[in-house]
C-alpha cells in the first residue's frame, strides 16, 4: 500500500483569477479551434465541445442541432446501421466534422462499426469507450482499430493518469478521453472507491498528451458553464458534456409530467434503466452502475448552447484571452474553500 500525499483538485476547489485585459466585449472572443490530430493527420476546425455518447444525449437530433454551432456529438452506440443510413442520407457533408461513431470493444461492437464505416466511409471520428481504459485488452483493441482504420481520428478512454494517456496515444489513439467517476449520473466513486479529481486529471493528462502531440477530452463533472471554462483553463482540448445537454427537445429519455412540470429522464449508460432498455446487449458499460435522475425539461438545446458559449467567452474576457486557444496559458487557478463555489450550485 502507498499513499500519494499531493492534493488533487476538482472544479469546485478552484476559481479562475481575473487578469488585466484589452478586450472590450465577449463578442471579440473566438471559441473556434483548429487541431491536427497526431495519428490520423486529419485537420479539424470547430468549437471543441462534445455531447456525450449516452443514449439520452448523443442522439441524431442532438447532432443536427449542435452541428449548427460546430459542436461535436458522440453518437451513442445503440443505433442500427439502417438508422445511421436514414440519418446520413438527409445531411450535408459538413456533418461528418461534428459526429463521432461510438463503440465498445466486444466482437459484436467491432463488427457493427466495421459495417457502419464501410457503408459510410466519410465518418471520421471513432470513439472507443470503456469504463476502465487501463486494461491490456483495451490497448490491444485500440492498436487493432488503428490498423484497420489508418486515417480515422480515434478517441479512446477513459483514463485519468499521464502514463496511460501516453500508452493509448502510442497505441494509435489521437484523442484521449479523461475522467473516471466525475459524471453526474455515475456511481463509480461510491461503488468502488476509484476515481481522480477531474481538474488534476485534466492538468496531468493534458501535459502527457501534448508532449506527444496528442489531445485530450475532459469527460464528466461539468455542471455549469464555469466548469467548462475551468476544464479548458486546465488544458483540456475538448470538453464532453452529459448532464448539461440532457433534458432538451433533442435529448433522449422518457418525458414525465408531475404537478404540471415537465421532466426528462437522464440515466447513466450502466444504470438499471439503460440495462433494461438495451437488455441483451453487452454486459456492463461502466465499472459500476450509474443512476437515473429526472431533469427539468429545458426546451431547445440551442438556448443552453448560447449559455455555455457565452459563459466561456466571458471567462476569456476576464483573463484577456481573445481566443479559446489562449485560455489555458492565461489561466491562474486559485484554490478556494468548497463552500465558496456552492453559490453557483457547483
Ligand atoms: P456529466 O457531463 O453528466 O457529468 O458526465 C457525462 C459522462 O459520465 C459520460 O460522458 C460518461 O463518461 C460518464 N457516464 C455515463 N454513464 C455512466 C454510468 O452509467 N456510469 C459511470 N460510471 N459513468 C457514466
TrEMBL record:
<feature type="domain" description="IMP dehydrogenase/GMP reductase">
    <location>
        <begin position="9"/>
        <end position="338"/>
    </location>
</feature>
<comment type="function">
    <text>Catalyzes the irreversible NADPH-dependent deamination of GMP to IMP. It functions in the conversion of nucleobase, nucleoside and nucleotide derivatives of G to A nucleotides, and in maintaining the intracellular balance of A and G nucleotides.</text>
</comment>
<dbReference type="InterPro" id="IPR015875">
    <property type="entry name" value="IMP_DH/GMP_Rdtase_CS"/>
</dbReference>
<keyword id="KW-0630">Potassium</keyword>
<comment type="subunit">
    <text>Homotetramer.</text>
</comment>
<feature type="active site" description="Thioimidate intermediate">
    <location>
        <position position="186"/>
    </location>
</feature>
<dbReference type="InterPro" id="IPR050139">
    <property type="entry name" value="GMP_reductase"/>
</dbReference>
<dbReference type="GO" id="GO:0006163">
    <property type="term" value="P:purine nucleotide metabolic process"/>
</dbReference>
<keyword id="KW-0479">Metal-binding</keyword>
<dbReference type="Pfam" id="PF00478">
    <property type="entry name" value="IMPDH"/>
</dbReference>
<dbReference type="GO" id="GO:1902560">
    <property type="term" value="C:GMP reductase complex"/>
</dbReference>
<keyword id="KW-0521">NADP</keyword>
<protein>
    <recommendedName>
        <fullName>GMP reductase</fullName>
        <ecNumber>1.7.1.7</ecNumber>
    </recommendedName>
</protein>
<dbReference type="GO" id="GO:0046872">
    <property type="term" value="F:metal ion binding"/>
</dbReference>
<dbReference type="InterPro" id="IPR001093">
    <property type="entry name" value="IMP_DH_GMPRt"/>
</dbReference>
<dbReference type="InterPro" id="IPR005993">
    <property type="entry name" value="GMPR"/>
</dbReference>
<dbReference type="GO" id="GO:0003920">
    <property type="term" value="F:GMP reductase activity"/>
</dbReference>
<feature type="binding site">
    <location>
        <position position="181"/>
    </location>
    <ligand>
        <name>K(+)</name>
    </ligand>
</feature>
<feature type="binding site">
    <location>
        <position position="183"/>
    </location>
    <ligand>
        <name>K(+)</name>
    </ligand>
</feature>
<dbReference type="InterPro" id="IPR013785">
    <property type="entry name" value="Aldolase_TIM"/>
</dbReference>
<keyword id="KW-0560">Oxidoreductase</keyword>
<feature type="binding site">
    <location>
        <begin position="216"/>
        <end position="239"/>
    </location>
    <ligand>
        <name>NADP(+)</name>
    </ligand>
</feature>
<comment type="similarity">
    <text>Belongs to the IMPDH/GMPR family. GuaC type 1 subfamily.</text>
</comment>
<feature type="binding site">
    <location>
        <begin position="108"/>
        <end position="131"/>
    </location>
    <ligand>
        <name>NADP(+)</name>
    </ligand>
</feature>
Amino acid at each position: 500500500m502507498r499513499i500519494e500525499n499531493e492534493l488533487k483538485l476538482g472544479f469546485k476547489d478552484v476559481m479562475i483569477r481575473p487578469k488585466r485585459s484589452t478586450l472590450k466585449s465577449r463578442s471579440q472572443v473566438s471559441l473556434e479551434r483548429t487541431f491536427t490530430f497526431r495519428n490520423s493527420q486529419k485537420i479539424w476546425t470547430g468549437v471543441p465541445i462534445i455531447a456525450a455518447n449516452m443514449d439520452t444525449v448523443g442522439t441524431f437530433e442532438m447532432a443536427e442541432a449542435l452541428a449548427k454551432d460546430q459542436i461535436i456529438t458522440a453518437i451513442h452506440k445503440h443505433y442500427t446501421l439502417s438508422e445511421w443510413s436514414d440519418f446520413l442520407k438527409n445531411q450535408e457533408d459538413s456533418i461528418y466534422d461534428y459526429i463521432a461513431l461510438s463503440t465498445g470493444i466486444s466482437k459484436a461492437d467491432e463488427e457493427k462499426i466495421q459495417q457502419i464505416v464501410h457503408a459510410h466511409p466519410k465518418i471520421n471520428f471513432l470513439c472507443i469507450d470503456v469504463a476502465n481504459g487501463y486494461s491490456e485488452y483495451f490497448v490491444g483493441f485500440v492498436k487493432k482499430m488503428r490498423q484497420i482504420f489508418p486515417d480515422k481520428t480515434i478517441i479512446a478512454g477513459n483514463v485519468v493518469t499521464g502514463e496511460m494517456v501516453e500508452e493509448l496515444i502510442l497505441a494509435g489513439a489521437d484523442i484521449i478521453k479523461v475522467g473516471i467517476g466525475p459524471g453526474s449520473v455515475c456511481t463509480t466513486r461510491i461503488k468502488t472507491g476509484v476515481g481522480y479529481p477531474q481538474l488534476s486529471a485534466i492538468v496531468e493528462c493534458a501535459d502527457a498528451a501534448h508532449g506527444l502531440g496528442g489531445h485530450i477530452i475532459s469527460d464528466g463533472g461539468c455542471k455549469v458553464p464555469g466548469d467548462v471554462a475551468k476544464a479548458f483553463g486546465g488544458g483540456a482540448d475538448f470538453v464532453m458534456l452529459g448532464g448539461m445537454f440532457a433534458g432538451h427537445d433533442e435529448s433522449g429519455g422518457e418525458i414525465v409530467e408531475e404537478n404540471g412540470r415537465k421532466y426528462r429522464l437522464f440515466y447513466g449508460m450502466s444504470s438499471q434503466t439503460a440495462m433494461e432498455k438495451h437488455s441483451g446487449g453487452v454486459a456492463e458499460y461502466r465499472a459500476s452502475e450509474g443512476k437515473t435522475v429526472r431533469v427539468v425539461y429545458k426546451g431547445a438545446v440551442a438556448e443552453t448552447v448560447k449559455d455555455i458559449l457565452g459563459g466561456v467567452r466571458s471567462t476569456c474576457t476576464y483573463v484577456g484571452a481573445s481566443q479559446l486557444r489562449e485560455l489555458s496559458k492565461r489561466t491562474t487557478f486559485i484554490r478556494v474553500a468548497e463552500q465558496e463555489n456552492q453559490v453557483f450550485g457547483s
